[in-house]
Design brief:
With 768 residues, the protein is mainly beta. 2% of the residues lie in helices and 46% in strands. Among the domains are: 108 residues, Macroglobulin (MG2) domain (Immunoglobulin-like); 344 residues, Methylamine Dehydrogenase, Chain H (7 Propeller).
Length: 768
């Protein structure tokens, strides 16, 4: 056993890290909020709930909860409407972008015709009518008819308004051999016995209603929702139904358990035999059904699926973050938590500056297994905060700082907000936006970062002194820029001492700032300041509009602009009178050279444990090698479950190597194969262990010393596989050098640095 002698074994085995639900290498999982939903369907004891996060299924009898997403079969993300047809046993899933899925016996068939078709004007599916194996889709451009058994579009009725104009159809209903359509300009109908419903001459305006949105057939009558009024048409007379809406707008009409439910934002009305039999008052209704005992099962904004039962109220929703917007990640290695700033600003990659949106999604925290509910309900500090757009974890103080674009800097301790820094409690050092309105004094905190001494640096857009410093001892300072302006955005600290420079973006295309406070932090006399531009000798950036930056493990500064990626190989040269011009990655493609990613806007850059770079754009995500010249991964919505091609930030849960993408439509993660690492082995674990016969993925070995050499042998000492760790992680596909699956048995895993001064051995049970 030659490797046993070479390594000088300290033997240890740990199958997996107990506190984490470790994902399988190369797998995906979504991290979405399911508290606010739009549509619910009940099929026996099973509830299907759709929202902008996708869809979940709750089986009341089994008590099981399953999430459906792009990871496990859905074709898209944002579910707008659900409907179930009993004849074909088909669940119809309609998305915000007009994409359609049909789910039958767990199998999903996509119908993308409307999504891909070029249509003049808005393209939205407003509602679904299902009857006898047919689905009528009420669309912004007319009606689309789908045969659910054939799983295909069989007809469409467009330009059926007066004189062949477009008709924005809100809902549809079949009543007395007529197809009725509700629209913003009134109620229209055509006989189903007509020869050609695609001909507008067969359609006529019905009654004198100026506008209507909801339709449903109940108790041999057609019920019509016209904003804040409810009407009932019995085939002869159309009459107003009083005492229902109380002036509230009807958002949905539906029949459940032979009852008519009238859904309004603050009220839910249940009809039985034409009379109001029950009224539940609770703000935030979006949809509802009844169960077999006629108990309300309702969707409430910010709550989820609520089952009102005699034995008590049950709240059903998959666990996830508080909201779906996300713009910045920060990982705490000590706390083993990934923090997410859940706010947003418009113009994140433009040259006109940022504008606040009033986003109130606060922040989220992931512990490797579940999302925590932060303790910010009725907290005076966080209540004032909107647009939390940056976050940084301080390992030395166990605090987390978040930038509110409008309020200041929120301090969080143990998930609880403990302070809000603004102009008032920093002696004016955290500057407000300078303007001519005395009553308008927002603190546009746009970026924050920690230096090597745990000092917090904060940028404040538009302040008289736009760069602020909170020392580790709590002292505040502020700085102005000679030759610069106050349009500051993100900040990155170059913590490679002694240079200790701050790199700061200008959100109005003013170039890239580099700042050093000098030896005397209380004086600006020894401060140094430089502006990097597109000019040769002064940075040679592809664009003056810098969006993001990341310092890699070799000390190189990777910079993302709205016109591509560039690298400054020696950031120390900025204040050393040496060349600090940026370079771009040039690929030779035969007869000509090309720039990697061309002029795509680079929204974010993240360096992983192996010094590889994850790069987010508006056209997907790229993983490149340490030097950038080898593309390792490229994820888009076409080749992966990525929720959107627009990726605002990338975070890594360093303990497991899971990579998180903050996309335009929410958070999704990918189980990567690299973790951060130090010079020593630490909490080495192998997953899965044991490896079962049905497992065909990558086996992960985590917790290794950085860039370790890894050898795998059988118990007789025969070498089966060898590789090099990506940071602190190595992977094995379970095959030997001949490409055959390894035989059943116990295998030894040896890990060592280059000079064998740091070694480790563990074992793996492999079942073929």
């Amino acid at each position: 056993m030659r490797y046993l002698i070479c390594f000088g074994i300290t033997f240890f085995s740990l199958s997996c890290l107990a506190q984490f639900k470790v994902p399988t290498i190369n797998s995906w999982r979504v991290h979405m909020s399911y508290l606010s939903n739009q549509s619910v369907v009940r099929v026996g004891s099973v509830y299907y709930v759709g929202s902008s996060s996708g869809m979940f299924k709750y089986d009341k009898e089994e008590g099981s909860l399953d999430v459906f997403s792009r990871v496990n079969g859905l074709s898209d993300v944002e579910v707008r409407k659900l409907a179930y047809d009993e004849t074909s046993a088909t669940l119809v899933i309609v998305y915000q972008n007009a994409n359609i899925d049909l789910m039958q016996e767990g199998r999903i068939t996509n119908i993308s015709n409307i999504l891909t078709q070029s249509i003049i004007g808005e393209k939205v599916i407003n509602d679904i009518l299902v009857q006898d194996g047919i689905a009528y889709l009420a669309c912004s451009f007319g009606v689309v008819k789908i045969d659910l058994n054939k799983k295909q579009i069989v007809d469409s009725y467009q330009n059926i308004g007066p004189n062949g104009t477009n008709l924005n159809v809100q809902d549809a209903a079949l009543f007395n051999d007529f197809l009725y359509l509700s629209t913003p300009i009134g109620l229209f109908r055509a006989s189903t016995r007509s020869g050609n419903l695609s001909d507008y001459n067969f359609w006529s305006r019905f009654d004198t209603l100026t506008a209507c949105n909801q339709l449903v057939v109940y108790d041999s009558r057609l019920f019509i929702g016209s904003h804040a009024n409810l009407y009932a048409y019995d085939g002869i007379t159309n009459s107003s139904v009083p005492g229902v809406t109380d002036g509230n707008v009807i958002t949905n009409l539906r029949v459940s358990q032979s009852h008519l439910l009238v859904i309004l934002p603050p009220k839910l009305v249940d009809f039985a035999g034409g009379a109001v039999v029950k009224s539940e008052i609770h703000p935030g209704y979006t949809d509802a059904v009844l169960d077999e005992q006629f108990n309300f099962n309702i969707l409430l904004n910010g709550v989820g699926l609520v089952l009102l039962e005699p034995s008590g109220t049950r709240y059903i929703a998959p666990k996830g973050p508080y909201g779906n917007t996300a713009i910045k990640f920060s990982y705490s290695a000590d706390r083993k938590q990934l923090f997410v700033a859940g706010g947003f600003v418009d113009g994140i990659d433009g040259e006109r500056g940022w504008s606040n949106t009033g986003n109130n999604n606060k922040y989220y925290v992931f512990d490797g297994d579940e999302w925590s509910t932060p303790k910010f309900i009725n907290n005076a500090f966080v209540d004032r905060c909107r647009d939390l757009i940056d976050v940084v974890c301080d390992e030395k103080s166990n605090k987390t700082y978040l930038c509110s674009y409008g309020t200041g800097v929120l301090e969080v301790s143990n998930l609880t907000p403990t302070n809000l820094f603004d102009t008032a409690n920093t002696n004016g050092k955290l500057g407000f936006f300078v303007n001519e309105v005395p009553s308008f004094r927002p603190v546009f905190a746009s970026g924050n970062a920690l230096d090597a001494q745990s000092n917090l640096w904060v940028t404040c857009f538009g302040a008289a002194k736009p760069l602020s410093l909170k020392t580790a001892s709590g002292q505040w300072y502020s700085f102005s820029f000679n030759g610069g302006n106050a349009n500051l955005g993100r900040v990155v600290c170059d913590n490679n001492l002694p240079r200790n420079n701050k790199w700061i973006t200008n959100v109005k295309g003013g170039g890239l700032y580099v700042y050093n406070e000098g030896d005397n932090v209380g004086s600006e006399n020894d401060d140094r300041f430089a502006i990097l531009t597109t000019e040769k000798g002064k940075g040679a950036l592809p664009s003056r509009n810098v969006i993001c930056m990341a310092l890699d493990k070799n000390g190189e500064m990777w910079i993302g602009t709205d016109k591509g990626l560039c690298i400054i190989s020696d950031p120390t040269a900025v204040f050393k009178n040496r060349n600090y011009d940026a370079r771009q990655l040039i690929f030779n493609t035969g007869s000509f050279n090309s720039i990697f990613l061309g002029t795509d806007a680079i929204l974010c850059i993240k360096v992983d444990g192996a010094n590889r770079k994850w790069i987010g754009t508006r056209n997907g995500v790229w993983l490149v090698s340490e030097d950038g010249y080898t593309v390792i991964r490229n994820f888009t919505t076409d080749n992966s479950p990525l929720l959107s091609n627009v990726v605002y930030d990338i975070g890594i849960f360093e303990e497991t190597g899971e990579v998180f993408f903050a996309t335009e439509k929410g958070i999704i993660s990918y189980a990567g194969n690299a973790t951060d690492a130090g010079d020593k082995h630490k909490q080495v674990f192998v997953y899965p262990n044991p490896v079962k016969p049905e497992f065909n993925g990558e086996i992960a070995i985590r917790g290794l010393a950085s860039e370790s050499n890894v050898k795998i042998t059988d118990m007789a000492g025969n070498l089966v596989y060898e590789t090099k760790a990506n940071g602190g992680m190595a992977t094995w596909n379970g095959k030997n050098f001949n490409g055959k699956r390894a035989a059943t048995g116990v295998y030894l895993i040896y890990s060592s640095n280059d000079d064998a001064t740091e070694t480790y051995v563990t074992k793996l049970l492999f079942v073929n």
